[in-house]
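Why does residue order matter? Because the sequence determines the fold. Keep that principle in mind as you read this record.
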Amino acid sequence: MSNSVTEAKIFACNQSKTLALKIADYFGVPLGNVITSTYSDGEFQPSYEESIRGTRVFLIGSTHPGPENLMEMLLMIDAAKRASARHITAVLPYFGWARQDRKDKPRVPIAAKLVAKMLEVAGATRIITMDLHADQIQGFFEKPVDHLFASTIFLPYLKELNLDNLTIASPDMGGSKRAYAYSKALASDVVICYKQRAKANVISHMELIGDVTGKNVVLVDDMVDTAGTLTKAADLMMEKGALSVRAICTHPILSGDAYKKLDSSKLEELIVTDSIPLKQQNKKIKVLSCAELFADVMHNVHYNKSISSKFIM
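Structure:
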């Protein structure tokens, strides 16, 4: 009689190969062999260079823009389905296109829902991701979604800093739930930034709700894109009497002139994960790896063990 647990194999999309190597090492299997052929017009084709018939495959790749990252994941899933893999788990450390999670004005797409359907149609049987931009995105899938919290990585680091008069801050109203969860775990106060945008990525006005005088402040958010909100909030808090301002952001998109904004701001430290590889090194950025977290969850998923501890703030 054959073993009820199928063989597990781990493969990486190109954009997440460094992280995937770490995950495979923690998991205890070698990273699988995939080669990508590219045509002169930019079209590419991934190819598994080993049999995956009857196995559980974990495909690791963040889907941050540009579109080729998502396209590569879809092609990898489709290839695994056509190669008769038994289970296909898409491991998306960063689930891209998630900011379009609802219609906030007429005649716009709900991209997060579209991406969810694309992953399922391609053949994904399970999704593992971390710190979705909006919790309700889990409901866009008909397949199981394991939504992990990076707080299991960040909280130990914050406790090691042993900051006096610690205050947790949300850079906007939408992140208040996340900020309150961190404050509860750290027994700290909470402040909220209220911001108004002129347009996407452009802040016209920001106000602080709460007192930061004499406090060491930690801003908490799921992602940092242009760093405009974080750096503006940090400068405002220092003007209001904060002793120091740090930021925790799970996904370091860091587009545009984000690195310049960080360098010129009063933000003391930006703490991120390696869900997205940094475009460049920066003395203010501290990277904590999410590899062990994903490896643990993947191991428990494969062996049908509970993963509920990874969902607790």
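The chain is about 30% helix and 25% strand.
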